[in-house]
């Protein structure tokens, strides 16, 4: 795996919209927030294009990705938002440009398509963390800001420590990979399908009812994608939980579906769709699950 160069104060961050349409005012506020972090900001005027539920045409969005990776003035690439559209964009992405210009790449949700692409097709570490017009345009928690800057600017293993709910104990070590559950499931059968063998698999999502979480996990299991993972870590699963009146917990659903796995399973890591803190996870680096203490430990830096 190749690691992008660590960002430093004064570096230029390129903002892209490979999925849903961007709000102009949020973009301005997000740019201001990035300036306050010490970064210059660059984006193409076409980032504000809109076509139905997309930020312009598939070709526009794909070429925007290519330009930002090829641009020598840009040291890092932050996604404006998710939504939908990255899977349609990949056909217009120039794999060689991305391979030959490794850069920090940050996003989550629908951006999971790119996190998986960068791992499988480019052998490049990427980052699952806050987006410009979803998170950074407004005040974020101190932990969110510190986690982001530490992950992207410090060539040392991130030190975020969160006590997680233990669904199954034990220990596991492997390459951390994953993102939004529904996006990962839809990568199966495509050229971008990830090899999950010996991986620490991180899964999170939003607004999916418990039976749909069940269905997606069952599909991953039936497809043979979970039998050789080194461990699983779930996010907060925002607005995926059953109501109190339904009388059961989402954690119980997950435990039942995955009961035949013999690896550690943790629940509640705050990255992606979260309620408060949104911590940045490097994808493609070694990590360890401590299923006795309920900890996900990142073992190496995501930047060089």
Would you write up a description of this structure?
- The protein is of the alpha/beta class and 304 residues long.
- The protein has two domains: 12-153, Rossmann fold; 165-298, LD-carboxypeptidase A C-terminal domain-like (Glucose Oxidase, domain 1), CATH 3.50.30.
- It has ten helices and 13 strands.
- The strands form two sheets. It has a seven-stranded mixed sheet with strand order 6-10-9-8-7-12-13. Strands 2-1-3-4-5-11 form a six-stranded mixed sheet.
- A hairpin with a 4-residue loop joins strand 12 (286-290) and strand 13 (295-298).
- The protein is globular.
Tell me the layout of helices and strands:
Layout (H helix, E strand, L loop, with lengths): L11 E5 L7 H13 L3 E3 L15 H13 L5 E4 L6 H4 L5 H6 L3 E4 L4 H11 L3 E3 L3 H5 L5 H12 L11 E4 L2 E10 H5 L13 E6 L5 H13 L8 E5 L14 H8 L7 E5 L11 E3 L2 E5 L4 E4 L6
Parallel strand pairs: 1-2, 1-3, 3-4, 4-5, 7-8, 8-9, 9-10
Antiparallel strand pairs: 5-11, 6-10, 7-12, 12-13
Helix pairs in contact: 9-10
Notable traits:
six-stranded mixed β-sheet, alpha/beta, globular, Rossmann fold, seven-stranded mixed β-sheet, 2 domains, 30% helix, 304 residues
State the order of secondary-structure elements, H for helix, E for strand: EHEHEHHEHEHHEEHEHEHEEEE
CATH superfamily of the largest domain: Murein tetrapeptidase LD-carboxypeptidase, N-terminal domain
Number of helices: 10
- At CATH level 3, the topology of the largest domain is Rossmann fold
Contiguous low-pLDDT stretches (5 residues minimum) are none
Give the tally of structural domains.
Answer: 2
Radius of gyration: 18 Å
Strand-pairing-aware structural class: alpha/beta
Residues in β-strands, percent:
15-25%
Helical fraction equals 25-40%
């Amino acid at each position: 795996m190749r690691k992008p160069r660590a960002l430093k104060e004064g570096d230029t961050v390129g903002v892209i919209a490979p999925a849903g349409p961007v709000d102009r005012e949020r973009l301005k506020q997000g740019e201001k927030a990035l300036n306050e972090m010490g970064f210059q900001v660059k984006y193409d005027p076409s980032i504000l294009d809109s076509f139905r539920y997309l930020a312009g045409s598939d070709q526009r969005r794909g070429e925007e990705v290519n330009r930002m990776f090829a641009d020598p003035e840009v040291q890092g690439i932050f996604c404006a938002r998710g939504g939908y559209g990255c899977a349609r964009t990949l056909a217009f992405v120039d794999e060689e440009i991305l391979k030959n210009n490794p850069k920090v790449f940050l996003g989550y949700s629908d951006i999971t398509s790119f996190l998986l692409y960068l791992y499988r097709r480019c052998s490049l570490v990427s980052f699952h963390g806050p987006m410009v017009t979803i998170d950074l345009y407004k005040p974020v928690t101190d932990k969110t800001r510190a986690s982001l800057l530490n992950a992207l600017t410090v060539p040392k293993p991130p030190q975020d420590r969160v006590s997680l709910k233990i669904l199954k104990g034990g220990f596991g070590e492997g390459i951390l990979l994953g993102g939004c559950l529904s996006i990962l499931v839809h990568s199966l059968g495509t050229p971008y399908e990830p090899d999950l063998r010996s991986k620490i698999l991180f899964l999170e999502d939003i607004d999916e009812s418990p039976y749909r979480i069940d269905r997606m996990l069952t599909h991953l299991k039936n497809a043979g994608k979970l039998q050789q993972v080194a461990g699983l870590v779930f996010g907060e699963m925002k607005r995926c939980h059953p109501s109190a009146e339904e009388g059961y917990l989402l954690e119980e659903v997950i435990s039942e579906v995955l009961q035949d796995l013999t690896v550690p399973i943790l629940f509640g890591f705050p990255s992606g769709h979260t309620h408060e803190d949104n911590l940045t996870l490097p994808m493609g680096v070694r990590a360890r699950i401590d299923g006795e203490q309920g900890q996900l430990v990142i073992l190496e830096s995501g930047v060089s």
